[in-house]
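Shipment paperwork, digital attachment
Item: protein structure file
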Amino acid sequence: MTRRSDRIGDEIRRILAEVIQRKLNDPRLHGIVSLTDVVVSSDLSTARVFYSVYGDEEKSEDVRQAFGKATPFLRRTLSENLRTRRIPRLIFEEDYSMKHGEKMDALIRRVHEESLRARQDKELPEDVSHDPEETACSYSNTKSDNLRQNIVGKAARVRSEESEVL
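Attachment content:
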């Protein structure tokens, strides 16, 4: 993308957000939709408008249909407010990055909690000597080995769960 297409994309996003909020009378779009990005092709013929939906899959489908119905009106409004020779064709696409980020955050949080629980469940080895110096070294090595194995196992489990999510 060029600087010009970036600038026009930002302007389209600003105009569309204002129109959706103030002029569009479709209740399917009010309060649950956020425009996340607009990517304009280098020849300015198309603009991919990315949006995120706050809610379930049913709301997501309603929003998609609402944008399909409102596209001619939104394009006409852009022609009145955008100072370009040509008004780009609008393509609305749901942005799943927020949902994907939430899933990744939940996975990381779960691994962190499991790791904390595993550390709390660890007990001193039974064959602890009475020499404090030796005991500290022995316990430290055992604990770090166990922790290392625990982290490697959890990382493998997260990778497999992440591939299932994607």
